[in-house]
Request: fold
Amino acid sequence: MVDFVFGHYAYWFTIILLAIGLYGMLIKDNLVKKTIGLSIFQTGVILFFVSVATKWDATVPVKSDEFPVTEVANYMNPLPHTLMLTAIVVGVATLGVAFALLITIYNRYETLNEQELLEKIQ
Amino acid sequence: MELTFVPLYAVIVSLAAVPFILLSSNKPNLREFWTILAGVVKFLLVLTLVPTALEGRTVELTLFEIAPNLPIELHADPFGVFFAIIASGLWIFTSFYSIGYMRGHKEKKQTRYFASFAVCLSSTIGIAFSGNLLTFLLFYEMLTIATYPLVIHSENEEAIRAGRKYLAYTLTAGLLLIAAVGITYSLTGTLEFRPGGIFGDVDLSNTMAVSLFLLYLGGVGVKAGIMPIHSWLPSAMAAPTPVSALLHAVAVVKSGVFGIIRVVHYVFGPKVMGNFGLNEILIVIAGFTIIVASLLAFAQDNLKRRLAYSTVGHLSYIVLGAALLTPLGLTGSIMHISAHATMKITLFFCAGAIMVNLHKKNISDLNGIAKVMPWTMGAFVIGSMGLAGIPPINGFVSKWFLGAGVLEGGMMLPLIILIISGLLNVGYFFPIIHRAYFKKGGKELEGHTEASPFMVVPIVITATASVIFGMFPDLFFHFFELASNIAETVFNTL
Amino acid sequence: MIGSDIPALIPITFLAFAILIPLLGLWKRQLSYYWAVLGAAIATAFSALGFYNYVTGTETIRYFFGGWEPPIGIEFVYDGLSGFIVLVINAIALFVLIHSRMIGKTQFPGKVTGYYSVTMLLMLGFNGIVLTGDLFNLYVFLEISSLASYALIGIGEKRAPYAAFRYLIIGTVGGSLYLLGVGFLYTITGTLNIIDMTAMLPEVISNSAVITALVLMVTGIGVKAALFPLHGWLPDSYTYASSTSSALIAPIGTKVAAYVLLRVVLYLFGVDIIDTAIPITEIIGVLAGVGILYGSIMAIAQSELKKMLAYSSVSQIGYIIMGISLANPFGFIGAVLHVLNHALMKACLFLVAGNLRLKEGHSDITKFDESYRKKYPWTMLAFTTAALSMVGLPPLAGFFSKWYLALGTIENGSWLLLAVILLSSLLNAVYFFRILEKVYLRNPESDEDKASILSSLRSNEVKPSMLWTTSVIAVGILAVGLLNAFIVSAIVTMFPAGL
Reply:
């Protein structure tokens, strides 16, 4: 049991981040905080990818004399990291669109609180 | 002569008339000319198919595959030709009558009326010539939609409500039919109409057979007005009288009973019907409908509604005949399609003529009208006596065969039903005749004469036809020969 | 020659125009519309050529970007199914874009350049999703199209930005869940290429990580496809977006997501192993069934045409997903055919709503009456055609997808789903005939209207560019219905292995 908890500690962080993100999106009234929650949620996924690609006693797959590597297994898989670069870009773009929408909402309703907003919409 | 394409032409001709009808909407005479022209051409086309049908052959035309292995095909088999003769023949009379009625009544939107009418007729002929269930389904739904504008024609509250009711019933029925057809396809791999049925080699469980049959019954039974799913039919009497006459005495409801006979004898087949006791279900339903509808007819004061309930009852005669599963029963059933058509259309025409001419809708107001409208009421007497089964009118002939079919099958219950309902028929028609002939009319009748010849001539012709076909069932169209041929084919393939 | 490059050419066309339009917009802003139409036309031409090649016998095209072969490189796969979907979505987009000129001029006059540039990005995303052979690449295209949708929906009525924001939150969570699922699959199989992974999955299917991945991916895609109960974002988004946006996104957006679901369920996993651990197809099927009924019932309750159509979309997407969940040949045909049919019907209906909004300023069903038929005879005829097709009356297109879906449920013995299909047709009939009855029968209430009808019996139709696009799609509904045997015989060649 202890092994299970500590052996997978990286995944627990992922789960905690996803939970915090969901909490922010579901519970918070302020739309900016919802957006922050969204961002945390995405970060959780990114962390997951990065954590599954880490490896003890391994290095980046670059040939270098400072870190002589004899076995291929001692290189890390670079693909998940590069994938996450793209995912981060997607996340940034999402934030950009989200903020653009929030600015429009604020200009029209002069509030970013969801409850007030819903009342004004009615 | 090459006949292959005749069924297609017969279906299309009235559809082709629609654009002409729409384009000449400002010239009523030209518009009605197209209607009549299409009607006559259609009738002649159907007549050219009669000789082949008499030989028992089928003119087959596969148009194209609408889905892999499921072609749209037209089969002008004897039964289809039989139905097509009646529908297209009576359309001509209805067209003339419509002209008189619509103009006499100063109805609005006559163009829409005549256009929808033409589409209805195409669908009906399509139903008659459908070679498989999918084609049948296609035309069946087309008929549903094309009839809707006719039902709501007067656009008042009552008509719109009737229209909704009509759609609710018929669209639901269409869906049940889709389900039934789908299940049939997955069980048999074919949807063709075959005399004697397509379920011969299929292992059916009892539940499956009964539920499939009930789905079919729900699908085609709505239009056939079997109880308890008949109630759209009396409501739909809100439509103009020619619509009631042609559609609710000939095209729509007869498409329903036509469908039932197709299902019973061409999809299930008498053998499968008998094995699972499906015919008993049908006999009980039909018998119940005949008696209850006749009783309900008594309660109606509105003439058209009384006729509607009478229609419901008589449709179930046809269903009953099909359910007997005997050659004579089927012959009688098919004969009753034609007999009921000519008689009921006469009665509806009379009701419409009385309405346009005297503005009377209720039976209690009909005192003494026979003096004013002798021809109309004379025809009415013939029609109603025919429905009661009095010789020498054609209603007698079909009832005779129905009775013979019952005896052939050795069943008592249907015989009792037939006898009781004959008496009930006399019972609900006689008061009308009594009032018209033997009671003194009110003052409002003064100054009125017979209705316009556009209406009276079709009335007299259809009434005469009822008598002629009663005395000589094989005259002109060989109705009897066709009917007995059909019955023979169905039962010989067993 | 050009044939083998088609998988790349279609998305590149959209990408090029997405960049070109803002640049050319600096020169002449009003030309943006024409550039967008040109872009969509070129892409449609490529798609049509590609599908023609497929039908006349070319094999599946696997296009390796930069010459790197998978699993190292990224490939685009142009097989029958992706070719078919690409053709459908690009052709619909072309018509909607042609239709959009007046709406753009009146509803967002200052923003046309940006708007059309974003539509090109949207189409880039959709085409990329359909064509890509790589699961992560698919995620990127999914997000490109989603981001473009958020932006397009945000341009609309006053309430549009809030609807778009909600969509953004829900949609991004969906995308992230999908990505998480892909991560699980990657850790187990070590590949992201769909074809590669398909070969490996049978060996690892009982691994709990793979099961989790499947559930996560289905949930994520379910959000994007508006699978009940994940549809919450859809009604408001489609209702408050500008007419062009909803006409563009509604017919093809959720379809593309449904296509991804189809790829995942029937190709990536495949019918043989999909249900190994949990009966996922059954669950999807039940959800789809509930969604069909829920969408139809909610549609009846609406008095705003666009909102009604939006709920009807929830219901219709259920048909496609139900077809996938049946996992038999008839279900597959029904699902793929319904992608086409529903795209046509919904496009037509939303274009009609757009026409009405432009002319009348509203699309409130309670205000419809007979004058609409007099004023917009052709628009209303198109509406009637699409509505009857939605109800499922032969020989219109809608009947045939329902027919195949019904056969599929019968083959599986799922009587409940069969009942759902039939019942929902009836519900469709209720909400469409309600409108048709008003348009064809209801007398205008105010005297002013009555007078205007009597005096001006002439029609007051929309501009030809709007009218003919609406009409062509309406004719397309009839044509697809009559010619569906050809289409189905093409679909039959697309069956995934094991079906």
Observations:
- Chain A has a mean pLDDT of 86.
